[in-house]
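Bumping my old thread because nobody answered last time. Still need a sequence for this structure:
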């Protein structure tokens, strides 16, 4: 199948999904939905500033898998079944703040509107609200998702990018899900907030000449004890780490990227033009990022009689 035909079919599918989802899905069944999410998000982000980037990463790791945005990343493994997605190696570093946020929101919503709001909708809206709190773009979130009933760690490695993957390989993961190169680069801009563990990049710092020399020295110093303390980490954007903006893209030509994939994003001739464009035009970055996030939030959603409304987000009913 040609990339153009695949993209066309994907867009047709997403338009059909939109027909089943609505922006006011909980208007009658849970009118407090939006306010409860906002209150929970605000309180959690103020108390734990890492919540925003943590939730964004959790959302991405949920939606990029073949089963799409079904909150399967939230399911815990059981003694009788195979390991769940959250126990895949790449997901073991997902920060607990994001899981805690969803638990808090779900608890409040179950008290107000029992058996009504899906964990998948909670994660989708909470991610959007946190992005706007950090200064990022607003985009409408269609609602009515239902939660998936399966979660397999074995499916994860083939569909989620890692910092050491070459750009063509990471790009393939996104284009096969219907994203353009420009949208992929915009989504990579999520690294403008959050942090990376030293173990994810430190070996590349020592072996690559793409890092700014002073920055490389700073990274090596900050991560000097990472063997004894695996929790050591650094901000992905050293200039404005807590603000969602386009400074991440401005950093890359200066050698101020943290991960190997950050540097490759600028050095690869396919993605570099979009890095340069977003570095000079934050409005363009925000516009493409918002479109890509909305598209991401609609991948593989289950509606109607498919899936379920979990009573607890970490286990099926």
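Sorry it took so long. Here it is:
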């Amino acid at each position: 199948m040609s990339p153009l035909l695949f993209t066309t079919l994907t867009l047709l599918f997403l338009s059909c999904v939109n027909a089943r989802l609505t922006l006011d899905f909980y208007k009658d069944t849970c009118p407090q939905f939006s306010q409860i999410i906002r209150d929970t998000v605000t309180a959690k982000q103020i108390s734990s500033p890492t919540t925003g980037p943590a939730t964004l990463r959790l959302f991405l790791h949920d939606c990029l898998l073949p089963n799409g945005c079904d909150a399967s990343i939230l399911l815990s493994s059981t003694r009788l079944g195979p390991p769940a997605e959250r126990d895949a190696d790449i997901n073991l570093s997902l920060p607990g703040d994001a899981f805690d946020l969803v638990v808090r929101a779900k608890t409040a919503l179950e008290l107000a509107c029992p058996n009504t709001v899906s964990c998948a909708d909670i994660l989708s809206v909470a991610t959007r609200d946190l992005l706007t709190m950090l200064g990022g773009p607003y985009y409408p979130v269609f609602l009515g998702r239902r939660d998936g009933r399966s979660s397999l760690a074995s499916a994860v490695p083939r569909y989620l990018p890692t910092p050491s993957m070459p750009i063509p390989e990471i790009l393939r993961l996104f284009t096969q899900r219907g994203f353009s190169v420009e949208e992929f680069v915009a989504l990579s801009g999520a690294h403008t907030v959050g942090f990376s563990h030293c173990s994810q990049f430190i070996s590349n710092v020592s072996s690559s000449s793409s890092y700014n020399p002073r920055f490389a020295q700073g990274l090596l110093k900050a991560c000097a004890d990472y063997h004894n303390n695996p929790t050591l980490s650094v901000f992905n954007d050293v200039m404005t780490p807590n603000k969602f903006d386009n400074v991440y893209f401005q950093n890359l030509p200066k050698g101020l990227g943290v991960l190997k994939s950050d540097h490759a994003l600028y050095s690869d001739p396919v993605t570099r033009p979009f890095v340069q464009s977003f570095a000079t035009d934050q409005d363009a970055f925000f516009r493409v990022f918002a479109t890509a996030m909305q598209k991401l939030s609609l991948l593989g959603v289950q509606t109607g009689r498919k899936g379920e409304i979990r009573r607890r987000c970490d286990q099926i009913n």
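The longest helix spans residues 3-20. Let me know if any region looks off to you.
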